[in-house]
Amino acid sequence: MLDAVSSRIVRVGDAVPAASALKLAANAWIATITAGIGQSLTIAERLGVEPALLLRALDGTAPDSAYAQLKGREVLARRFVLQFEVEGILKDVRLARGDAGDLLCPARCTRRALLGRGRRRNGAR
Prior knowledge:
- This protein is mostly helical.
- It has 6 helices and no strands.
- The chain is globular and about 50 Å long.
- The N and C termini lie far apart (52 Å).
């Protein structure tokens, strides 16, 4: 049955919790990249930069992804095609947040990690 609804099957072991955890992590990634490309396009627009230039700047670089390009082009064309049920992804994000806690706050976690790394480079702890 999985072959009919999945583009890829990854074996994570025999225990159901591991498979559920991987699904939550993958859906958190989808939610993050979807929100991230929308946020970045909005920032570019509000700062007076043509948003399409962001996609061009990302194209072929390490942080680029086919999904970011696809979603970015759809946002720019104002073509908001639903590729997953919002309620489903929100449910998974809530579940992941319950299990992962603070880890599901990318902006706060990223800032904290970068601040910590910067302090270590400057000799502070």
